[in-house]
Amino acid sequence: MVKIRLKRTGTNNQPKWRIVVADVKMPRDGRFIEEIGYYNAIPVQEVFEIKKERLEYWVKQGAQMSVTLKALLKRMEKKARRKAAV
Asked: Which whole-number Å values give the CA distances from 79 to 3, 17, 47, 50, 71, in the listed order?
């Protein structure tokens, strides 16, 4: 089974996250199939980038998104809608 989840990078107290497609048997920071984005929550303005076409492709192939990633996507979409409304 394939999952779309976050992989932690960075140093102590400076975490950065990569959004990766990985087999569920692999560890969190282990081997992955494809990197499709990144997330950095530390700056004042959160940095979130994702390749939407690749995300859609993997979901169509049966990959499941992690709960954390679903919540993060929902929050970022909400922020984008609020920003567009202003």
From this structure: 25, 19, 12, 15, 12
Model confidence at 45, in pLDDT bands (50, 70, 90)? Answer: confident
Rounded mean pLDDT, 4-27: 92
Is there a contact between 40 and 62 (Cβ–Cβ < 8 Å)? no
pTM as predicted? 0.86
Best CA proximity match to 4, nearest among 42, 40, 39: 39
Answer yes or no: are the C-beta atoms of 26 and 4 closer than 8 Å: no
Q: What's the CATH class of domain 2-85?
A: alpha beta
Reading the block at residue 31, the tokens are 């081997």
Query: Quick one: average pLDDT of 6-10?
Result: 92
* Secondary structure (3-state) at 12: coil
CA distance 74 to 30: 26
